[in-house]
């Protein structure tokens, strides 16, 4: 299969089109849209800066309860996987003062990379209609999986799912994860 769509308590094939889904030999995946966004320090960050790595992209907002709840779990996942060709990016979708966001994430004690999509342009390109929403991008820059809603990112089964992806072992049976 060409990837996974993680959501609603189950996993579905995620591919470029219906026709490709019907063809089990098709391995075509959707390229993740490129972006250039400032981080909390003002430095410009592009998705292509991380080509060759697995990139976890999470769209969130400070007012989103589930987003806030999952951030400490994302931080734990990041600490577990940061030495395994893995990069975590959290894209804030609010048009608020970056200093407020900086204080907010400092209070949550998260240390992964925070990017600012103040005009929600990148969010629109990625088709974000609800948050939190997370994309896993493979080293080639293709969308490998999508998770809608909050997840327990530090759950041992979830960690193993990511390790399997990173190591090139995609086993659907091990990826049976609930969307809590």
What profile does the largest beta sheet have?
Answer: 7 strands, mixed
Question: How would you sum up the global shape?
Answer: globular
Measured between the Cα atoms of the first and last residue, the distance is 25 Å
Number of strands: 9
**Average pLDDT for all residues:** 83
SSE pattern, N- to C-terminal = EEHEEEHEHEHEEH
Number of helices in the DSSP assignment: 5
Beta-strand proportion: 15-25%
Output the radius of gyration: 16 Å
CATH top level assignment: Alpha Beta
CATH-wise, what's the superfamily?
Glutaredoxin
Look at the helices and sheets and give the structural class. Answer: alpha/beta
- The structural domain count equals 1
Low-confidence segments, ≥5 residues, pLDDT <50? 1-26, 172-180
Give short descriptive properties of this protein.
5 helices, single chain, two-stranded antiparallel sheet, globular, seven-stranded mixed sheet, Glutaredoxin, 180 residues, disordered C terminus
